[in-house]
What we know:
- The structure is a single chain.
- The protein is α+β, with helices and mostly antiparallel strands.
- The protein has one domain: Sandwich (Jelly Rolls).
- The chain contains 7 helices and 16 strands.
- The strands form 4 sheets. Strands 3, 4, 5, 6, 9, 12, 14 and 16 form an 8-stranded antiparallel β-sheet that branches.
- The longest helix is centred in the first third of the chain and has 11 residues, at 106-116.
- The radius of gyration is 19 Å and the shape is globular.
- The protein starts with 5 loop residues before the first strand and ends in a 7-residue tail after the last strand.
Amino acid sequence: xxxxxxxxxxxxxxxxxxxxxxxxxxxxxxxxxxxxxxxxxxxxxxxxxxxxxxxxxxxxxxxxxxxxxxxxxxxxxxxxxxxxxxxxxxxxxxxxxxxxxxxxxxxxxxxxxxxxxxxxxxxxxxxxxxxxxxxxxxxxxxxxxxxxxxxxxxxxxxxxxxxxxxxxxxxxxxxxxxxxxxxxxxxxxxxxxxxxxxxxxxxxxxxxxxxxxxxxxxxxxxxxxxxxxxxxxxxxxxxxxxxxxxxxxxxxxxxxxxxxxxxxxxxxxxxxxxxxxxxxxxxxxxxxxxxxxxxxxxxxxxxxxxxxxxxxxxxxxxxxxxxxxxxxxxxxxxxxxxxxxxxxxxxxxxxxxxxxxxxx
Length: 360
């Protein structure tokens, strides 16, 4: 979702279904500077500057899974068993998302949660904390609505490193990352953690992911949300607005209306009357170990956690091979600058899946 301080207002190469606005949206334009550029203030406050000890391994130096979380497929047949069916692909393009896909076992989830807990102690930082792209112990700033949100943990633990290479999510990503339905080699864009503590877990306000990502073009992106706990409406589970992946503004995503995520309904200020009429939140009801895949323009969010158990999730964001930088500024904290017009490659954006793996 986030990961850059300023998102420039430029026309990007967005491939979406035709959308005609019969009513005008509000004049509210979201957070912008005096030149009309989107400003993501929270990305700046979340930047991490802690030094990293020399004996701490940066797992981004490993461009393949190590085998600590799963066994990599060894044949074409094994890779193919992770492919989506034609009906699942049709459903994705109809609704803008696909949910309740089993990708992890209970045991795999528990292993990831062991690592997760190392990032939740406010009094004891992980030795690799300085490798995060961003880290927000509570992005809302409200102690009664706590949302822990972090980016870049795949660099910090071996298990989370391997998660971004997981065939159960990378193979389907290749099938649905482009509206032409052409299959692409898949690269990591970045990963995220979201944790809502018991009884006072905060919201994630309605938004479109690509609103934060316009510094990369074309819009060949995909978000995979992996539930590490059962999700339901009462504990802050993920919700979607079906078919909202068709909502845009002359090729641009909707503006960012609350970069702290705490104003759940702030998006209403920028919706047309037609969009408001079609605004029908649908819970994903993910089970532990299940994932949802959603379009970069899919409007989604989650409510508060007022139950007695935590709600934790790991998100992996992918790009199709060939996506390029559209800025000369640093895109993700603690990485390297990729000049405008150059492809997103290198150790921070590794290939996680190649279409040849499923070919005879």
